[in-house]
Amino acid sequence: MRPKLIVVSFFLLLSIYFYGLAVLSYGEQYMFPGFVLIGTFHLLFAAGVYLGNSIAVDGGAYVALLDLIFGIIWIISILSLAAVSLTLLSGLALFILMDEDVRMELRGGGKP
To answer: What are the residues whose beta carbons fall under 8 Å from the beta carbon of 92, sequence distance 6 or more?
Structure first.
């Protein structure tokens, strides 16, 4: 698989996940807008990485790191399949995004 497909899929899956949590928490004063905001944030990063925006590519590593940290905290508090999958997916995306050659390719400066 190409790194762009993996990273864009990661951000798309997480945006769908957070939108799903927003639907489940519809009607709550703070949870619903928070989940919508986080889902939109991940969707914007997916679009930015797909288009090769350098800010989105560089910032994607930080977002994946935040997802990894919150996934680990979630595993510590409640062990669940969703927590493990969030942690593993964000760890994979962070591993891919930390390689400078991959970031150059995502920006469009790599080999075709």
So the answer is: 6, 10
